[in-house]
Amino acid sequence: MTLSVTKNCLFLALAISPVASAQIVTESFETTTYPTDWVRPNDTTAKTEDVTGIMERGPVFGDRQLFINPSSGDSWTYHDTGTAFQPHTTYTLIFYAGCRQNNPYQQGGDLEYGFWSGIPAAPMTEPSLAPDLSGGDRINTSVFPEQTLVKVDSYTFTTGSDVSGMGNLVVFFRNLQTTSGRSYIDHVVVDVGSPAQPKPNILWIVAEDMSPHIGPYGNTYATTPNLDTFSDTALRYNHAWSNAPVCSAARSTLITGMYGTTLGVNFHRSADKITPPDFVKFYPRLMQEAGYYTSNNSKTDYNAAFTSGEEWKEGWNDSGNSAHWRNRPAGMPFLSVFNLAQPHEGSINDFSSLSEIHHDPNTVPLPECHPDTTTIRQQWAHHFDTIQEMDTSFQNYLQQLKDDGLDDDTIVFFYSDHGSSMPGYKRYVGNRGQQVALLIHIPDQFAHLRPPAYSEGGATNELVSFVDFAPTLLSLARNEEPDWHHGRAFLGAHQEAAPSYLYGYADRFDERTWVTRSVHDGRYVYIRNYRPDQPHGLHTEYAYTETFIGEWQSMFHNGELTPEQSHYWTPQGSEQLYDLLSDPDEVRNLANSPEHQAKLVELRDAHLAWRTQHPDAGLLKEGIMYELADSQSMDVWSLLQDATHYPTDLPDTLDRASMGDNSDIATLVTRLSHAHPSVRHWALIGLMLHGRDTVRTHEASILTTMSDPSFWVRMTAAQVLATHGNATNQSAALDLLFVEGAKAASNTSEERKVMYALHCLDQVPYIPASRRDDINTLQNSTSWTKNFRRHMWYSYYEQYNNPLLTFRHTHGLDRFGVDDHDNPSGDGIDNLTRFAFNLSPNEGDLLESAAPRVLAPGGTAGLPRISHNVATSEVNYEFIRRIDVADSQDAGVYPTPNIRYQPQSSTDLINWFTDQTAESVSPINSEWERITLSLPTSEKSFHRVNITH
């Protein structure tokens, strides 16, 4: 429900509890016992007990703005709470005043309030009324600190046995004035419960970028003594998911209590933040309305933001590095959040805070997905060092809680915000990227709020995910969740049954876009890839600058990995299925396993049912989503409820585009003219995924979309034709992509377009050598567009230039080594390799026999490769060349290829300088020699190897 916003506000809470007598409980009223029938209190002089914040809250019967007219001192404004009076029930009205914007609460006038009985259920249709009971008045509501709610007054009464004719509870106000004019009452809430049961304090301690690699989950390598001890008094959740495998998308799910895909907050950071629909309030605001003080120290990385004047819906009383429960008003229950950043990806490669690696790299347990190298072992060991540091910080907050005497009054959550910062975990939509640690301690006095499975030091296999956390908070506060929450309470007064499945999503993370969804049933993980041509290991520049991921990917391209270690870099097709019981690292895809087809169908159907229940913003092209929202003046949630803007043909087109069924091609062609641009976009992607023959068969139809009214469709069409079109259309498509990619991004909309043009250009598998200089025109200065230029220079997402990939580019091979561009040799990859490098048969081939887009390990022995000396930080380029001798026509003797390689560097991608590095030559035999060149390692420069023939 929409609420108007001003600088002033009053917070009201009504508590109803069945008791035999009534009290006035207020800072300035004395306690008075009433008869069994309702009468007006008279004596109001003595100070009595403060019960602020200890009322149990029940169903919200009213949530409406109450406007007080400052120009009419005798005028009463009334509000029907919608609550019928009950016999022998105590009603307590508590007033809070404060400021919901960053300004002090202004000077208040005299506040008068009262009640009336006997009013009809629809009082707003009745003439003006006056209360038959006046509650009293309070002089000068004063000036309050920013973003706070402070108790002003409270009033309690009890009904008798006869409530016939009393109708609904109606609240009256008048004479709430300020020096600047109008004041507002925020809302009226009816609370149910007994003041005898206090509300618990709630403390959240959150470790960033960490899978459950800690002692309580059986990891004996981890050093987490404090978490180990805490776990002895807590319940461990074995199957907790973050819903999204990256921080802002996961945190946006937490803060809203809704799947990010339903709001458009599933994209990891955008130039524009999404505006939530009017009914949404962040969970801190809902907890404020439940009488809580809310503090956040200090992460607010959400993809959503409210419009100006509605910032109060965010709900933090205090958010920043100094935010703490200790700053709350006395006696007020709190919800306090503390984020522990030590394991974050940004610090994984930073050893500056540690004199040495404390965990032994030689004994670190490695997952099957990672190769066993010195660098990787060091990174994993350092990651466990950061976890140890986090464990110490965790204990500091528990000690503060104990020092304040609050440990027996506080429910403590410890959890991580998504999977580990190690490559292949964060950003991966499966269990590796989404499983989080979750330990919860509930003190004995709140045993009634525990789940049935609770036992200190125990564990549960109950499925929980971040979408459940907001409703669980409200349940712990004994409040019902709003109907727009997507999760369910797994603790507290309003616990609900556990779901059968957990759901995850990965879309755009920084400059890279996935469209993948996942389902987890506690044992199996199902992944649906709507871009089956893309591996999960797409490059994001931030990850490359922080971790060993570049080395890992180079090893993949050089054929040095096992199939399990190559899995992350290999496209897995439309569907994936993993059995975590036998394959906890998710490296053996069972989607084609005959004995697992029933499980595959079950989880596929669960995904489709979830997608139907929750329309998915990720299926809209992101730029189209923003344009629709702006042109229609609608928030994304509302767009997705509208069949015009989210047609049924959209998810159907994604299914047809991504499943690879040839019978869908005709439908995809017809949808090139669909009314919705996102449908046209996905129809183009589908035709591209069906391959060159399909694109060239329908090339005329695809070419028409190069003139589509939607920019996003035009760029997609250009990508399709640059990938599979004929020579003329390839050239025209590349022209368009380079022109759009070179435009200046002077505002948010243009930056988004430049980004997408570069994204499409970067995905083109082969750009002719004659086009390489065109990349110099791409001089947009924003960080992400710089990243795309770097990607294109390095041919396939390398932090430094990979010569093997340069070789492929030069000789007409796409990024996966597929001979797919009419190379002049006409003999396929093996013979092309021999032709280009004049290799003898025993020097190895570029690829062993393999299906397109699948690299077979171990087949690159004789080709250029990168070697990285960790001890000296040197990066060397090695290749084989024939000893420079005169050409010979003798049988069995190859002519000298005269291929030379020169490392070059640039700071601007325009001016290139040759690095004068002496060759290190090692003879192999009388005909062959191995050349080693030292490559520059400066992070501030671009690097390439210039090939001359």
- Measured between the Cα atoms of the first and last residue, the distance is 71 Å
Name the structural class: alpha+beta
What is the C-alpha radius of gyration, as a whole number of Å?
33 Å
Output the CATH topology of the domain at 201-504.
Answer: Alkaline Phosphatase, subunit A
Which CATH C-level class of the domain at 201-504 is it?
Alpha Beta
Percent of sequence in beta strands: 15-25%
CATH superfamily label of the domain at 201-504: Alkaline Phosphatase, subunit A
How much helical structure, as a percent, in the residues? Answer: 10-25%
Shape field? globular
CATH architecture grouping of the domain at 201-504: 3-Layer(aba) Sandwich
Per DSSP, the total helix count is 23
Strand order of the largest sheet: 14-13-15-11-16-17-12-18
Main beta sheet strand tally, sense and closure: 8 strands, mixed
Poorly predicted runs of 5 or more residues: 1-73, 96-109, 119-128, 137-151, 176-196, 793-863, 886-898
Arithmetic mean pLDDT:
75
Keywords:
949 residues, Alkaline Phosphatase, subunit A, 23 helices, 25% helix
Please explain how this structure is put together.
- By secondary structure, the chain is of the alpha+beta class.
- Among the domains are: 9-192, no CATH class; 201-504, Alkaline Phosphatase, subunit A; 806-949, no CATH class.
- A hairpin with a 6-residue loop joins strand 25 (900-906) and strand 26.
- Helix 18 (711-724) crosses helix 19 and helix 19 (727-741) runs antiparallel to helix 20 (748-763).
- The longest helix is centred in the middle third of the chain and has 30 residues, at 374-403.
- The protein is globular, with a radius of gyration of 33 Å.
- The model is unreliable at 1-73, 96-109, 119-128, 137-151, 176-196, 793-863 and 886-898 (pLDDT under 50).
